[in-house]
Amino acid sequence: MSGWLWLAAGLYLLFEIWRGWRRGVVRHGVSVFALLTAGGIGWIFAWMTGFVSDRLIPLPPPAGRMVFGLAAGIAFYVAAVVISSTLFKKTSQQPPGKVRFLYGAGGAFFGLIFGLTILWGGISIFRALGAVAAARETAPGDAELVALKESLEEGTTGALVDKVDIVPSEVYGLITKLVRMTQSPDAVARFFAYPKTQQLLAQPKIAEFLQDPSVIGAASEGNYFALFANPKVAEIIADPGVQKSFETFELEKALDYALYQSAPSPAPTP
Fold first, then answer.
1. How many other C-beta atoms can be found within 10 angstroms of the C-beta atom of residue 75?
2. What residues have CB less than 8 Å from 258, skipping those under 6 apart?
3. Which residue of 41, 145, 153, 222 has the lowest C-beta tally within 10 Å?
4. What is the 3-class SS of 225-251, one letter each residue?
5. Could you say which DSSP state residue 203 is in?
6. How many domains does the chain have?
7. What residue numbers bound the domain in which 226 lies?
């Protein structure tokens, strides 16, 4: 399957090079600049409007900011593309000769950069989806996602993917273990019984949160939306003591304990 992935990636890059040639160096150069800076624009916007988004969007506090930031990044990119397409000419609108050739060649170069950037982000997305699917393997399409992830990670392709992927390979293993753990009530119980997890939950703000009647009620009803939208979640995230505890918390060891620790044998009957 890796051969098909290479073919698809190659055809996509050729398409972007061709599209860049048609749009021209200025139009496509602006598109690449907008794509590469949209994330930073979104992060700045989310940081500046956090006090508004946390109140307007009924999601856990960080999620509201992420929605605002994503919307700002997309709006910036679309605006940049529309303005550049309005103000600057396509390659075909340039006079024939060297000027048109250089204009198109520059656009083709930026098309290559644009295509590589999209493929770069797509690698991380498909590996993350494959990690989730590897833990479930029950929903439609899971087997295909797992096969795609394995194709990306095998042989020569895998070595290259590890070098260019912005997300460390270990993170995908953690995603698989985390999803697998949440599907087993016994594994969840062992996760919370892990000594380091107990130490983390003993943090004053976390302990206070877990003892809140509204939190207990939301958890018992399975209302995770209300649970994470609780204003105390933002206070916990901002607490320096909690942040330090999370920095030293070894998540993978806790997940391994939850998934692979044998359940205690029942006491023998006298």
1. 14
2. 181, 187, 188, 190, 191, 194
3. 222
4. HHHHCCCHHHHHHHCHHHHHHHHHCCH
5. S
6. 2
7. 185-260
